[in-house]
Amino acid sequence: MANTKLWDFLAELKGPKYRFVDLTHELSPETPHWFGFEPLKNDLLFSYEEGTDPDKLAPMKVFQVSVATQYGTHVDAPKHFHGDGRTLAEFEPEELVFPLVVIDKSKECAENPDYQLTVDDIKAFEAENGRIPEGAFVAFRSDWYKKADLENKDENGQPHYPGWSLDAIKFLVEERNIGSIGHEPADTDPATITTKEDAYPYPGEQYILSVDRFQIEVMRNLDQVPATGSLIVTAFPKMKDGVGYPARAFAIVPVE
């Protein structure tokens, strides 16, 4: 008789003891995305609907989509910034599931849109919630996904959005050996760093990708996930030479 333990486990996960939280923005031309990219383009190739161009009339509906690889909720592969880094195709399936830790600094970000998550924030989190486990996906909750404009420019055109400090990311990698990070803005680093003309603009992103981790950007619904105890499942195309792509991520959360 076949072993059905995994089937039983899946039935339990889909039962009343757990809930699923989608951490992904819907993909469309209106999706929040980094300011340097054009909106997604969605061209109709074939359709079965009335009124369709006769040259496109068919028993199926098909679109041709054109989109930047780092668009909307997306994964960044190490090769995004580093020529010798791994591509999307080189990540194994078992590397796509993690314990999920959510560090909530949404109140601080509401008071200061240029907020940087620090090593002290991580240590304070651990004092309350316990040590961050090895291999965890650590997400920075800012509630930034609720904003229509991710750049949040002031009257002078200066962007203001929160991000990780480089020291915080280094601490998570070097002292906790985490598996990945994620956040709601379109950049890893805060706007106070990325907009400096006299400084290297992406130190945090450069670092996390240099240590053979991928990251997920432009996440949402982290406010629906507890600080600890959940799992995150991440998925993206197995793209040859892929430096990034729109991703799907969801959390499996115990019901208290």
From TrEMBL:
Domain of life: Bacteria
Alphabetized InterPro entries for the sequence: KFase/CYL, KFase_sf
Biological process, per Gene Ontology: L-tryptophan catabolic process to kynurenine
GO molecular function: arylformamidase activity
PANTHER family documented for this protein: CYCLASE-LIKE PROTEIN 2 (PTHR31118:SF12)
Record protein name field: Kynurenine formamidase
Protein's organism: Eubacterium pyruvativorans
Organism ancestry: Bacteria, Bacillati, Bacillota, Clostridia, Eubacteriales
